[in-house]
Amino acid sequence: SGGGGGGGGESEYPELGNYPIEGDTATFGFNVPQSGPYASEGEDELRAYELAVDHLNNGGGWVDSQFDDLSGDGVLDYQIDSVSGDTATDADTARQSASRMIQRDEVIMVTGGSSSAVAIAVQELCQRENTPFMACLTHSNDTTGQNCVRYGFREMFNAYMTGQALAPVLTDEYGDDLQFYQLYADYSWGQTVQESMNQFLTEAGWEEVDSVATPLGTSDYSSYLSEAANSGADVLLLDHYGLDGATSVSQAVDAGLDEDMELVVPLYNRPMAEAAGAAIEGVFGTVAWDSQIDNTPSQEFLQAFQDEYDRIPSGPAQLAYGQTLQYAAAAERAGTFYPPEVIRQLEDYEYDNVGMGPETMRGCDHQAQRDVPVVRGLPESEQAEGQYFEIINVTGRDELGYACDAGPAGECELGEYGDE
Amino acid sequence: MSFHIEAITVLLNGLQQGAIYILLAVGLSIILGTLKFVNFAHGALYLIGTYAGLLIALEVNLTSGQLQAWGFGQLGLGLGYIPALLIVPFVVFVVGLAMERWVVEPFKNRPDTDQILVTFGLAIIVQELFRAFFGSSSLPFSQPSWAQGPPQVPFLAAIPISSWRYYVIGITAVLVLIVYLLVEFTDFGLVVRAGTRDPEMVELLGIRLSRPYIVVFGIGAALAGVAGVVGGPLNPVNPTIGNEILVPAFLTVVIGGVGSIAGAVLGGVLFGVTQAVLVATYSAWAQVGLYAIAAIVLLVRPQGLLGEAEVAP
Amino acid sequence: MALLETENLVKEFGGLVATDEVNLSVEEGERVSIIGPNGAGKSTLVNLITRRLDPTSGDIRFKGESIVGHDPHEVVQMGVSKSFQTASIFSDLTVRENAEIAALASEHGSFGFKLLEHRDSLTGVHQVARDTLDAVGLLDQADRQASELPYGDKRRLEIGIALAAEPDLLLMDEPTAGMSPEETEATVDLVEEVKRELGLTFVLIEHDMEIVFRISDRIVVLNRGQVIAEGTPDEIKGDAAVQEAYLGGVEL
Amino acid sequence: MSLLDVDAVDAYYGESHILRDLSLTVEEGEVCALLGRNGAGKTTTLRSISGAKPPEVRDGTVRFKGDDITGLPADDVAMQGISLVPEERRVFANLTVEENLRIAEVSRNTSNTWRRPRTATGQSMSTEQVYEDFPRLGERKTQKAGTLSGGEQQMLAIARALKQSTDLLLLDEPYEGLAPKIVEDVEAAIERISDQGVTILLVEQNAAAAIKIADRAYVVDQGAVVFDGSATELRDDDETRERYLGV
Amino acid sequence: MSDEPAAAADGETGSSFADTVGIWMPRGDELRVMTATAVVLAVFPFVFSRMPVVSDLLQGYQSLATLILIWGIFALGFDLLLGYTGLLSFGHAAFWGGAAYAAGVFSQHVSGSPILMVLAGTVFAVLLAWFLGFLSLRRGGIYFAILTLAFAQMMFYMSSSPLAFITGGENGFTGVETAELFGLFPLESELPLVLETLLGTWLYAFVAVIALLCVALGYRILHSPYGMVFRAIRENEQRAEFVGLNVWRYRLMSFIISGFFAGVAGSLFVIHGTYVPLSSLYWTTSGEVVIMTVLGGTGSLFGPVVGAGVYLYVENIVSGGHPFEFVAPFWHLILGLVFVVTIWVFPRGIWGFFRDVRDYVTGGED
Ligand SMILES: Nc1ncnc2c1ncn2[C@@H]1O[C@H](COP(=O)(O)OP(=O)(O)OP(=O)(O)O)[C@@H](O)[C@H]1O
Ligand SMILES: Nc1ncnc2c1ncn2[C@@H]1O[C@H](COP(=O)(O)OP(=O)(O)OP(=O)(O)O)[C@@H](O)[C@H]1O
Ligand SMILES: [Mg+2]
Ligand SMILES: [Mg+2]
């Protein structure tokens, strides 16, 4: 569909970031954790990214069925190439890696995630370097709140929306007037989850006994858990993700906490559930996406991923795949890789092709307005590959979110396009 | 909940955490005290112990790493925890023997700093080898089902601590006592302690030192291996656990006093309990407190709690 | 005023009294030897004076000023130098640098901020170092690495380092131990010569009675931490208590 | 057959050639002195006999009780009944006086020998006897050896050697750092040991002191034997004493 | 040195000159070393990231060139402590990270001038080094290593939680606001004319000038009495004390000096990255500088800088795949192996190895 527009486009706009592209391949940078507490998520993301590149160049998956803008023969007449880097779930490593991709490999777009601290650090760098950043898995309110940038976009929902989706389900299930206790990972993501859960559960009539920060990457939560157990609360929220989440929920069950209190893990995913095994039985939470979601895009993606890797994709994988295609489609619509134009194409774009219902990539904070699935962990006996929880409810986007001048978006100042 | 339950919980949590430090610190300390060897690769032995324990006790699915790439995605003997606990110390003991022979010997007469550096390098190599073979992502090493949940004993049942942690404390106590008796009260211990200062003179007395040395190193290593097996199910298992545990283990040795087994025990308990108490009170300061304690102890008693001041030459 | 004085000096190790109410005084320019049976407390006394050990009680005064509470290097700065028994040198440095280190300390104090001065500009230090090396006969070897020196020369350098610190008082604990009679002779000559030239005061600890009686102005005898006799060599030779505690039947 | 037979030994420290074709014999029961000035090679000779490394013995043989012990590890040599009082005393600083004495007996315990051949026949001195001979050590039983005075350490080093089962005792400057009175005590002890049948090879720089108790003497210079004869012969040989011993 | 009278005469004219011009006058080889360093610094980014053919082989890039210099300064200072005074610190992350936070906070609240930021960060690091040195220098060897490690970890955990309101905790410090150099030149902008080809950005030029000054300072320190005293203390501490040197204060001084270099480097790091990650205080950062220094060669001025280059090269280029796809996942393993082999076989590191080779070759010719 680009029809040679890419080559001709080079003279249309001034140099900016890595635009114009030299040669006839455009390179994407995949900056994912391959070590550290979120390594499992990162590995799955990388698989999805590679699948996306394959589909962009050779057709297949959503490129053929869901994204009309994409041709399956590269983007804007450029073949797509990619480089990857290991963020080690560490902001500094991630920035070094992103900076190498931008400066040496001259990538036209960076994507990646798992850890909001990393995403925030990298998107700030991308803003400076005028290179679009498609945030993959980052769930902190701040990513599109106080730390938002013009060059960053987020498909994933955030902690605020998790709170909105989860609170009614929890009060329904466990009753009113309960006391809850939170352990949260001590960084941007955990802090905003703690904040939002507190806000919405308190609004629903529950009372927070205490909330305690635990360092990211803690491996033994026993002391923290004992404190929680002895606090007399009815519900324990474990605001931990990835490996940390799997660990804390297993240790809670090992210590017998589930006998006296209800456990909640606000943000879940498949690798976590797999690692925690029996411990997740009956535990509520939200997920980015799940292979059990029954709609065409979801099932197509599941199929494509399974065909390629013979395994079931996780939520982060769906995000990775979707974000890559979204960027490519925006470039096609803009007719150029010139970043400000691509950004303008993404802003306020409405779509319904990634399996999470109709969505808008909101222009005021670059936060996708979308549905949030609420799930509950299955007993070990009912677990199977790709099936660790039942979907309780897919909360519609109309029941979620906040206005451009409210909630996290109220603190967002996007910054410049770079062509002003 | 009543105050005394809370206090006991905190204390037990502290003891359990301290137990892992103690197992590592005692090994480090006797190696440092007798062979005068600074082993920054002790964490690597812990790492080996954990993976060995996991693969003996359970079957695991690898999701990344070369082994998985080569088709060994499903790995492990699945023999259960008791066999793991019995076999692993021997495995790591043998690794220790090899290490004594190939690393400690050549570096025995090099400066402390060289020993630290070479073992630091080895620690990195071991960690990265595990990463290469088993992948970076954590493997689940669950606590045995018979040790999950609080023990079904009248009083302890009310304390939110799993039975496994009681086993950890018990196993540590027994092993450390055995090692202590061995070093303090046997000929073996005497020879080893003498060799600390002047190995050649020991040989001139007709005593061959190579074997006692190897045995000391092996014992230290085996203790690290045991720590790996008992500590593994308390933490997620991944290649970095070895180097992460090394820092507190070394601190334990130093605040307890190099070469002093009792000191290592005291240091480990102090560390574990301090940490547990701080988590229960000012959790933001829990980690800071650990290092602050270490710093204070060393400032007041540079030779460590039970260490002997250096004998004047 | 005596150059060095100790007053009721006591040092205890646990229950053991190694130095017991010792009152010692050394006049400027004097040569004093301390003798006594093994474990009498001689080395302990020297270590107290050089501040390697803290006294349990009592006082040590150098040039009238109490040095208890000073650090070892401060005591050296005041003019107390010690030669070590086994050659204690900086073996990776050249002979010249060995001497320069000591000279630097005596010329510029125990610590200075002269870090931006190039070494070449410290002419005073070079001079002292050269003079000292000359005095101990090592000037022609100045650029050799100290570790390459033969043992005898190392001992020489050792004494050279002690001298380059320009001390007023030199303490020597068994300086000739392990030396052959010849070497001993040479060392004694060196010391005497240095004394003559630099007017040094020194305190010597020795078990070799020949040397002791030859070069001491005064001898102090210690036994079990206490001074049991004190006097000129002749007086000591005749002292019954000394015979009994220390010399045994040795013929002199 | 002599008890110890050092035959044409060449020993090296790295590339420096220290002992040059050195030969000496020690007969059973005698006290033999090995004299020479600093650096002559006396300590090197003792180390070559006792199997300490360095030096490296490249040529020649050392025979003990007729067996070739050249190049055997130090611990094996000790098992044959050779004990050494080394030059720098080398007591175990971190062990108590008692433990220093106890360790000397460890190698006699069969469980610690690991089936190495042990042919020592000498009797080990009893601990009571040690404390009787060196009352100073008795007073300091539980003190760490590192904090002993120089002379006390020397006594301990000698006592430790005597606690081994000794057929041949190698003494490297045993009087160094000892008060004159203790020197007498040690001399007496050496004579008594000798009377009990232990053979002694005594290294000294001080010829006078050695001649007092020695039956026979060797003088070495630059790693080679330059004099060999009875103690009386040496006493009368002014030239040798002046030339090689500096007296 | 061999020509005794000439050296003395040299010294005398020098000192009278020094009185008038000051002690900053280059002496001996200093001018030559500085010139050579300046030349290398001037062509490095060009060769590394822009020179035809060569840069394609090397796969370098501008920002890595800058980063190498920054870590080089850090390692150089570290070696003054490890290589000369013989103290192995495992806590230098405290100075690097501390300075980075200080410079960052300074830029947010006081001034974003790069020069002032470097000053602020360095002053902080020096004060911190003074304080921590005071506490940890009570014992050497392993105790010192562990004590420094403990204090640095304490700082890490302080900023991760109790001080998170300043440092941003795990999120890192994001409030850095760097202003233009001299109020004129944005650091990331390109230099004029041929300088652009050679040096690239103002940032590089700024870092390179500071690196040059650091090399000069390091060289001077080593050739001042301090250099000699440091070596003497490492050799024989007791003897040094007994010639009347205050060993403790010299050690403290060498600790502070290396803290100074770490501070300069840490401040430049925040200027370069406009971000301070929490991990800059973590003990692995200390471990990295140890590896760099040893790899490059302890006891030499330039070895550690080379080590920093090699380390960062492997970390950033080799790990990044192309053209090292085959070994990329194992970059850390490779570094570990190289590190161990270095200690085992070439204890004097890469630099020492090349010097030995050079000596061997020239020695062979003689
Ligand atoms: N740190 C210590 N702890 C316990 N006792 C000690 C310590 N240091 C020295 N002593 C004891 O103090 C006494 C005096 O020792 P010192 O070294 O002063 O003797 P000395 O007169 O120098 O003897 P020598 O002539 O044998 O060298 C000795 O009995 C020794 O065992
Ligand atoms: N470890 C060593 N490495 C190299 N050379 C050595 C070593 N030990 C001794 N030497 C040299 O070997 C020679 C002989 O030394 P040895 O110690 O045997 O002499 P000695 O006769 O015992 O002297 P002394 O009476 O001083 O003890 C000397 O020149 C000495 O410098
Ligand atoms: Mg003495
Ligand atoms: Mg000798």
UniProtKB/TrEMBL annotation, chain B:
Ordered alphabetically, the record's keywords are:
Amino-acid transport, Cell membrane, Membrane, Transmembrane, Transmembrane helix, Transport
Listed Pfam families: BPD_transp_2
Its subcellular locations are: Cell membrane
Name the principal localization, coarsely classed: membrane
**Example of a GO biological process term:** amino acid transport
Q: Which InterPro entries match?
A: ABC_transp_permease, BCAA_transport_permease
| TM region positions | 20-38, 45-62, 82-104, 116-134, 166-192, 213-234, 246-270, 277-300
Protein's membrane topology: Multi-pass membrane protein
The protein's matches in PANTHER family, at most eight in alphabetical order, are given as: ABC TRANSPORTER ATP-BINDING PROTEIN, BRANCHED-CHAIN AMINO ACID TRANSPORT SYSTEM PERMEASE PROTEIN LIVH
Sequence similarity: Belongs to the binding-protein-dependent transport system permease family. LivHM subfamily.
What is the protein's name according to its record?
Branched-chain amino acid ABC transporter permease
From TrEMBL, chain C:
Would I find Secreted among this entry's keywords? Answer: no
Q: Which family does it belong to?
A: Belongs to the ABC transporter superfamily.
What's this protein's function?
Probable component of a branched-chain amino-acid transport system.
Q: What keywords are assigned to this protein? A: Amino-acid transport, ATP-binding, Nucleotide-binding, Transport
Return the protein name.
Probable branched-chain amino acid transport ATP-binding protein LivG
Q: Name one GO molecular function term.
A: ATP binding
Q: Where is the ABC transporter domain?
A: 4-249
Coiled-coil segments: none
BP GO terms, sorted: amino acid transport
Q: Which organism is it from?
A: Haloplanus ruber
Where on the tree of life does the source sit, at the highest rank? Answer: Archaea
Q: Does the record bear Transport in its keywords?
A: yes
From TrEMBL, chain D:
Q: Give the matching InterPro entries.
A: AAA+_ATPase, ABC_transporter-like_ATP-bd, ABC_transporter-like_CS, BCAA_Transport_ATP-bd_LivF, P-loop_NTPase
Entry coiled-coil feature ranges: none
Could you confirm whether the keyword Nucleotide-binding appears in this record? yes
Which PROSITE patterns does this entry report, sorted A to Z?
ABC_TRANSPORTER_1 (PS00211), ABC_TRANSPORTER_2 (PS50893)
Q: What is this protein called?
A: ABC transporter ATP-binding protein
Instruction: Show where the ABC transporter domain sits.
Output: 1-247
Output the Pfam families linked to this UniProt entry.
Answer: ABC_tran
Which of UniProt's keywords are assigned here? Amino-acid transport, ATP-binding, Nucleotide-binding, Transport
Specify the domain of life of the species encoding this protein. Archaea
Q: Say yes or no: keyword Membrane present.
A: no
Q: Which family does it belong to?
A: Belongs to the ABC transporter superfamily.
Q: Which GO terms describe its molecular function?
A: ATP binding
Gene3D superfamilies the record matches: P-loop containing nucleotide triphosphate hydrolases (3.40.50.300)
PANTHER family with a match to the protein in the record: ABC TRANSPORTER ATP-BINDING PROTEIN, HIGH-AFFINITY BRANCHED-CHAIN AMINO ACID TRANSPORT ATP-BINDING PROTEIN LIVF
Single Gene Ontology BP term?
Answer: amino acid transport
TrEMBL record, chain E:
Identify the GO cellular component terms for this protein.
plasma membrane
State where it is primarily located: membrane
- Give yes or no: UniProt keyword Transport: no
Family annotation (Pfam families): BPD_transp_2 (PF02653)
Key words, A-Z: Cell membrane, Membrane, Transmembrane, Transmembrane helix
Q: Where in the cell is it found?
A: Cell membrane
- Top-rank taxon, per record: Archaea
Q: How does it sit in the membrane?
A: Multi-pass membrane protein
* InterPro entries, per database record: ABC_transp_permease, LivM-like
Membrane-crossing residue ranges in chain numbering? 31-48, 60-82, 115-135, 142-159, 202-222, 252-271, 291-314, 326-346
Concerning PANTHER family, the annotation shows: ABC TRANSPORTER ATP-BINDING PROTEIN, HIGH-AFFINITY BRANCHED-CHAIN AMINO ACID TRANSPORT SYSTEM PERMEASE
Q: What is this protein called?
A: Branched-chain amino acid ABC transporter permease
Taxonomic source organism: Haloplanus ruber
